[in-house]
Amino acid sequence: MPSLLSCFGGSTESSKPSPSVQTPLLPTQQQPQQHGHAGTRPVDKSVDASRCVFCAITPDRFNIVLEDDDYICFTDRSPAAQHHLLVVPRIHIANVKSLTAQHVGMVREMQALGAKALQVVSPDAKAERRFGFHIPPFTSVDHLHLHALELPFRSSLRSLKYRIAAPPSSGYHKGWSWFAEYTQACGILADGGRVSVGRC
Ligand SMILES: [Zn+2]
Ligand SMILES: [Zn+2]
C-alpha cells in the first residue's frame, strides 16, 4: 500500500515502463528549452543542496521533460496517474506552506510549465489534468514540487492523495485536504492567506 507520504521515490511499480519515458522528450522550439547540467544552479545558501534530492536534479538521475531558467519538470518515479510529472523551482523553497502572496506568479509559471510538459508527453490527450501541491506533513521531499497529473489515476487508492476538497463556503478556497489544487493555492495566496491542511 503506497504511503500518503510517498509522493516521490521508488516503489514496486517503478519497474513498469512509463509511456512518457519511451516518448522522445524534445523541447519545443520556443522556451522553455533544455539546458545542460541542472545541478549547477544557485540555491538557498542555508540549504545543503547535496542533501536535497530536488536541488540536485541531473539528466542521468531524472527523466527531465522540460526546463527553463527557473523551473525543471520531470517524470515522477512512482506515477499515480496515466501521466505524472513534477515541477520544481531551481531555487530551494521548502514547501507550499512557505509561499505567500508574492509567489502567485511563480505558482502560475510552475503550472504553465507542467501543462506544457504534459502536452509534450501526451499531445493528443483530452483527459482531465490536475495540478497541485501536497501540504506538510503530507510531503516526502522538502523542496516545493507541483504535481502535474493527467488522469485517469492508476488506482482509486492512489487518487486519494490528490483529492480536491471543495471549499465549505464562499469565504474559503479549499476544504480540509492534504492536497492544494493550484487554483486553490493561487486564490489563498492572492487573498494574503497561507496554504494549510485545514480549510483556508
Ligand atoms: Zn507530493
Ligand atoms: Zn532543494
TrEMBL record:
Record: active site: H145
Motif (Histidine triad motif) spans which residues?
A: 143-147
Keyword Hydrolase appears in the UniProt entry: yes
- Bias regions of kind Polar residues — which residues? 9-21
Q: Name one Pfam family in it.
A: DcpS_C
Ranges of biased composition (kind: Low complexity):
22-34
The protein's GO terms of the molecular function aspect are: hydrolase activity; nucleotide binding
Region (Disordered): which ranges? 1-43
**UniProt keyword terms in alphabetical order:** Hydrolase, Nucleotide-binding
Matching entries from Gene3D superfamilies are given as: HIT-like (3.30.428.10)
Q: In this protein, which residues make up the domain named HIT? A: 53-159
Q: Which domain of life is it from?
A: Eukaryota
Q: What is this protein called?
A: HIT domain-containing protein
